TrEMBL record:
Belongs to the Dps family. SUPFAM superfamilies: Ferritin-like (SSF47240). It comes from the Bacteria. Pfam families: Ferritin. GO terms for molecular function: ferric iron binding; oxidoreductase activity, acting on metal ions. This is Ferritin. InterPro entries: DPS_DNA-bd, DPS_DNA-bd_CS, Ferritin-like, Ferritin-like_SF, Ferritin_DPS_dom. Residues 18-152 form the Ferritin/DPS domain. It comes from Skermanella stibiiresistens SB22. Signal peptide: none annotated.
Amino acid sequence: MSVHTGIAEDQRKALSDGLAKVLADTYTLLGKTHGFHWNVTGAQFHSLHEMFETQYTDLTTAVDEIAERIRALGYFAPGSLSQFLKLSTIEDEHGVPDARGMLEQLVRDNETVTQACRAVVQICDEANDTVTEDLMNHRMDAHEKAAWMLRSSMS
């Protein structure tokens, strides 16, 4: 069934493509943050373990919201690890860096997701899609705050 919400099909496609990238970056960041939560060691173990848990819990909710927005726009959301890794610009971690290395990666990765969200906001402006824009603004706020918290935890 066709989608008739006042957003042209080409704009919905552009929004969906941008959101698919945000979804892939977010899902990749979720996996990395969760892995770091399990494997962090050192003097800051407890505080980082707790912070990583807070962040991956937020990311778990976010991936669902982003995927559902893609569906509401009339497109299928990517849903496999291979699709996410193909679309994501966040590098998967295959080892276990020290706590500082984890923090550095997560700062960089949260900033990457912020930039991907910002690119979607530009498309939202053209399409007059305030719903997607609101979602992206919320996600940018969450990622900027996460990056700040992570950055502030580096000693």
